[in-house]
Amino acid sequence: MFHVKQSEILAPDSCLLCGNKSLTTHLRLRDYFLTREEFTICRCEACEYMFTWPQPEPKHLQYYYNSPDYISHSINTNDLLSKIYHLVRNHTLRCKVKLIKRYSKGNRLLDIGCATGEFLNRCRLQGFDARGIEPNENARKAGQQKYNLTIDPVSAIKDFEDSSFDLITMWHVLEHVENLHERMRDVFRLLKPQGTLILALPNPESDDARYYGKFWAAWDTPRHLSHFNQKSVNRLAEIHGMKISQIHPMLYDSYYISLLSEKYMKGKYNYLSALLRGFLSNMKAGMGRNDYSSLIYIIKKPA
Hints:
It contains 8 helices and 11 strands.
C-alpha cells in the first residue's frame, strides 16, 4: 500500500534545510528493501542537502519498518547476514564507546534512536548515566526487557530539562527524522554548554554510492528522508549555532552497504564483489576528501 502524502506529490519549491529555491532531481529510485514504491531524491544546489520525495505521512512511517529483515530493530541472529551484522556491531560498539569517552566532558548521555539498546547498555557498563529514545515500540521493549534500560518514546524529548546532557548521540538516525530543524533545536536545548553531538550518517558522495547509483542501499527510501554530505551537515550545524570539530570514518559500513546494494542491483548477495567494492571505497576515501561510505561528525555546542 502506498503511504506517501498523495496531496503533495510535487516536491516543495525550496530546500527543506536552507530554504534556497534552486532544487534539482538527483535520482529516481525504488524502495528496494520492502515495497518497491517509487521515490525521487531532490537536491539543493546551494547547500547540497538532499531529501526523499514524496514522504510518508508520520502515522504511516511505521509500515516501512515492519519487516523481520530490518536488522537494527531485531535481535535475531539466525541467518548469515544477521550474524555478520551482529558480529561487526560488537566490534563497532567498542569503538563507539571509546570515541565518546574521548569527546565527552561528563557522563550524562542521551542516545536518540537507540533501537534495542546495545550501545546504550555498553555505555552504562562503562559508567555513563545513559538513557535512550526510541520511536519503535517493539525495539524499545526489547531493550528494556533485555538490559533493564531507561528508554523513552520520542515524545519524552520535550519533557527533558534544558542543558540536561553532556553528550547526545544519533547513530544513523537523523536521516530518518521528519522534522529535521525541530529535532536539532531539541538537541541544542538539551546539550550543556560545550556539550557534544555525535552524528553518524551515510555519505552519498562515497565511491560505493557512486558505483551502485540508484541501487545504493543507504538511500533506503523512504525510511531515509534526508541525505547529507559534508557540506550540508556543516550547514545544518551552522543554522543551529553549532560547529563541526572532527569527522571520522565508519570503515565497516562500506562493506555492509555494498553487500545490500549487490542484492538490490543483482538480485542476490555477492560477498566477494561486496568485499572488493567496500575495500575500494575505503581506499579511495583515504586518498581523497574523506568521503567514506558513512561518516561520524563530532559537533560542538558553544560555551
